Amino acid sequence: MSLQEWANVTEYDPRATLAIVFTDIIDSTKLSRAVGDKNMFDMLVKHFETARSLCLLHDGFEIKLIGDAYMVVFKSADPALQFALDFRRQTGDARIDIRVGIHVGQVRVRDNDIYGLQVNLAERLSHVHVPGETGVFISSSAKRDIESEYGSDHKGLRFLSLSAAKLKGFDEKEREAVWQVVTPEIRAARTARLAERTRQELEAREKSSTTVIQVEEPRARLPRLDLGPRRYNVNPDYPNRTKNN
Question: Which H or E run includes 204?
């Protein structure tokens, strides 16, 4: 099935309102440097296999892979959120942590791809930086649809306003508000990442503040030999002195 058929659009009117999802691996360059290209490739294969399985489970449509990012759409925000939470929990490898951005907006569909400003906004949401970094970040339109489906008093689901979040290319006055999805599991993972980062910073600080002072040991002095007074014989036929011991 093509994306046009899945989204129920035509060539004459390619517009559709979809829940757009982008995922992003946290510190992927650092991770790749640590494990090497071969291991990172194998990890990415498992990572995207997991993403595709979850996409099918929640009735999404994969758009494409962009480096280590995954782009997928859903017909509404609630399956998009379930996909994001499941994928964050099970990334295909325990060493991989992800951020996920979700936005609901109108796009244009063509050749199994989507286009429009709303796509750019969803991509920016996957790059929001907060303490602990890991998490799911959504726009107000996504939050509205999720609360409509699950209710605003859902015990395991909270939304934290990120009024200071910066989205490249989008002015704060013209874009929607940004929210972070908070679940008990996400809160625990964020706390663990912060604790690990603090530990690493303290170790680095201790190493940089430790000064190794090398003390040069005194050189051994050779005993001085007393050879007695020096005597010189003068040869009147030779201008230089000859030393006799």
Answer: helix 184-209
In a domain, 238, yes or no: no
Contact present, 193 and 133 (Cβ < 8 Å):
yes
Query: pTM score, two decimals?
Result: 0.77
Mean pLDDT in residue range 116-133: 86
What does the longest C-alpha to C-alpha distance in the chain come to?
Answer: 126
DSSP state of 1: -
CATH number at residue 29: 3.30.70.1230
Our count of domains for the chain comes to 1
**Angle at CA of residue 57, ends 52 and 60, nearest 5°:** 65
- Indicate whether 82 belongs to any domain: yes
Give first-to-last CA distance, the chain, whole Å.
Answer: 110
pLDDT bucket at 241, cuts 50 / 70 / 90: low
